[in-house]
Structures are given as structure tokens and as C-alpha cells.
Amino acid sequence: MVESGGGVTGGAIAARILAAICGGYFLSSSFAIFLSCTLPVPRAEAVLAATLLSLLVYVAAIIWAFAARTVSMLWATLMLPSLLMLALAAGLNAQQ
Q: What is the pTM of this model?
């Protein structure tokens, strides 16, 4: 990831940009789906609130993409919570 001169390679930057865009979108959309299933308000208000809050999650994911030490840790911290929230949301929807 780091060249012998101390600079960061283009591949590492590209991986972080891809993680910020795609992984951040996946995390924020998973968060919005999960939150809209769990908020105890009418469905339209829950979806609106979840969507607005998911924008904050997306910004945090973009910042995290360039703060994480390694790209593999970055992808793990974006994908694991996303998959967990989607599984929980699917379970909650199955109960309704």
C-alpha cells in the first residue's frame, strides 16, 4: 500500500474511494432499512427519519474510508454492520 518513497499507491486510494462510495452507500441504505423497521412511529415518518439519519451515516462512512488503517479493516467495518442490520430488518419484517 505504501511505496518505498513513503507515498500511497494509486490502488490503495482507488480501493478507499470504492469503499467510500459503494460500501458507504450499502451501509447507509442498510441503516435506513433497519431503522425504518424499528422506529415506533407511522411508517411514512419512520422512512423519512431513517433516510435523513442515513445521510449522516454515509458521511461518517466516507470519513472512515480515509481514516481506517487498512483497506481490509475498512471493508470489514462497512460490510459486517450492513449485513447484520439487513438480517435483523428481514427478521423484523417476517414477524409483521
A: 0.86
